[in-house]
Amino acid sequence: MEIEVHKFGGASVNSAMAVENMASIVARVQSQSRAGKVIVVSAMGKTTNALERLIPGVCEPEMREPLLADVIEYHLQILRHLFRSPKALVYGLIKKLFDELRSEIMAPAEGRDYNLLYDRVVLYGELLSTTIVSQYLMQQGIDCKWLDVREVITTNEQHRAALVDMEASGRNTKQLRTDLTEGKVVVTQGFIASAHDGSTTTLGREGSDYSAAVLAYLLDSKSVTIWKDVEGFLNADPKYFHNTVKVRQIPYSEAIELAYYGASIIHPKTVKPLQNKHIPLYIRSFVTPEREGSAVGEFDKIEPQTPLYIFKRNQVLVSVMPKDFSFIAEDNLEVIFAELARLNLKVNLMQNSALSFSFCVDYNEVLLKELIERLQERFVVKYNQEMELITIRYYTQEVIDSIVEGREIVVEQRSRITAQVLVAQWCS
Ligand code: ASP
Ligand code: MG
User: Fold this and answer.
1) Model confidence at 61, in pLDDT bands (50, 70, 90)?
2) Are strands 36-41 and 3-8 parallel, antiparallel or unpaired?
3) What are the structural domains, with CATH classification, of the chain?
4) Which residue's C-alpha comes closest to atom 5 of ligand 1?
5) Are 310 and 263 in contact (CB under 8 A)?
6) Nearest ligand, measured from the Cα of 204
7) Model pTM score
8) Residues lining ligand 2 (ion), CB within 5 A?
9) pLDDT tens-place string over residues 388-427
């Protein structure tokens, strides 16, 4: 049986109208292909952010009820639009999820691991959205089934950033394969999974693209389509850049490079499982579903050829010099990298000279303070905040000049294909 995977993010289901639109896209793809379809749906709108504030220990007790009431009301208002009959089955299903969520957030936090509590609370965003969407698709006459993805995707016990066990997950796909008969739709969650010990885990924020890729890999799916609010893969984030160009074709290796440099459109882990099984990834717009979008796949080069830009704001440039004015050598670097690894700080750019070593990391108040204190034991440390790291693939000098627009370049690095410049951030 041919299988397709489609993924709908939070923005594509953030209101009753959005859900109606999403359902019309499902009906449309149903009319275009008889493949069995797995539909991965994220939590509605900003629900995950709201739930993060409700985790025991995070939330002030007096704030719990009003915050929970907001989450409940948000979903109910969508429900009331989509299901006119108060007797619809969905109201009972949703009420049960609200009750479970309430008891999780009222649980005592003392002595319990934050990451574990996190996973026990945030999963309700995806359970609520997939329940509502699957019931709505059924109401619209689409032959559809709801699946708890935790029955399939198995991970280790690293809560909040769990690693998928592909082999174990692969052993759980039998029922799903049987359900995916011709033209059948299975609606399920992204982002959440189940650990070997049976507890719920999550795969990291924005993880449901990755879930879609994992399911595609496990099911040998024909394709993955991610439905977004942009017209495909743009050469820059339209938040920072006007005159974006749509890139129609992106080789897997290019997509991995872009994710590495921080392009927000692709979750870094998503591409690898797809590349391993030669599954194409389509990025299409849920606003203009009739248009073609972009494809990541087995291409030689990007098409059209255009510079690609990645903007990373809120960077900190840290420079360290040995206190005794000795050279920067391997033993110093070892100390520096050990600290960075311990604090789980990812280096976005680095530069070495005889007497100093500089690197750039994302700003995080707590971690930065700790890093600097530790490094100051052995080094003279200087740092600059509010920097912006701009990465340009397929650059020309003209392109760099126009992006920098007279700002002073603090660090610059070029390879044959990629240029990176660190400049002071413009106020926004
Ligand atoms: N709902 C989760 C989040 O907002 C996962 C996802 O949407 O990809 O991070
Ligand atoms: Mg989301």
Assistant:
1) confident
2) parallel
3) 3-228 (3.40.1160.10), 308-424 (3.30.2130.10)
4) 206
5) yes
6) 1
7) 0.90
8) 10, 42
9) 999 999 999 999 999 998 899 999 999 999 999 999 998 7
